[in-house]
Design a protein that fits this description.
Length: 224
């Protein structure tokens, strides 16, 4: 059994909330200004938009559908839906931590370029540090952690892992002109330092997969 380091042992703090009364609180989360995150001024969500978000969240959570079936419109709509959407995205990411389906994981986690949320951040931090998770899931979790603090660079899987001809990661990717993220729940105050510490440890550990170490090296380039 793997023993988690003190840094990540308490990270998935939200999971107890996912199964108990989750759907009953969606409307409240969407219709009122709840727990604004530092640095973001959240406005009350119009009722029509709140209804669309509630439908999108319910669709994203349908257990009988594969991630691919849920993704096309529901997951793409979640970044504008606040903290309730953050819980839904975190739950989806948690459910794919052992998957090797690069295309599906890439599509699911790419939405975090447009959305910053504490539950999503904590799940990504847990997966990135979990040797039992798939290498693909860990790499894309590292990208999610980068996006939490650096929204100006869109990174493909190939770029962040150095899968091109040079074998060197491209940590710049496609540069974006502005921060277009929507806020969810706040990220923990020590989040940046936890990401930097984790990335430094992954880069230094030669027993970790080469592609993961390459992705982790982008942390020092973009957010350290």
């Amino acid at each position: 059994m793997r023993t988690h380091s003190p840094m990540t042992a308490t990270v998935p703090f939200y999971r107890a909330r996912l199964s108990r009364g989750f759907r009953h609180c969606i409307a409240a989360l969407l219709l009122v200004d709840c727990a604004p995150s530092a640095g973001f001024a959240q406005e009350p969500v119009p009722r029509e938009h709140a209804h669309r978000c509630e439908v999108a969240i319910a669709q994203a959570q349908r257990d009988e559908l594969s991630i691919k079936d849920r993704r096309p419109w529901a997951i793409g709509s979640l970044p504008t839906c606040g903290p309730a959407a953050g819980l839904a995205i975190a739950e989806l990411i948690h459910g794919t931590r052992f998957s090797n389906d690069q295309a599906t994981l890439d599509s699911l986690t790419q939405v975090t370029l447009r959305f910053t949320d504490g539950a999503v951040f904590n799940e990504a931090l847990s997966i990135a540090d979990d040797r039992a998770a798939s290498v693909v899931a860990r790499i894309l979790a590292v990208r999610t952690l980068i996006y939490a603090f650096q929204p100006f660079h869109r990174l493909s899987y190939e770029q962040i892992t150095g899968a091109g001809a040079t074998g060197i990661p491209n940590c710049v990717g496609s540069q974006l002109g502005s921060d277009s993220r929507s806020p969810g729940a706040p990220i923990r105050p020590d989040g940046r330092s936890l990401v930097v510490a984790l990335a430094s440890r992954l880069v230094a550990d030669k027993s970790e997969p080469k592609e993961l170490r390459a992705a982790a090296s982008c942390v020092s380039v973009l957010i350290d």
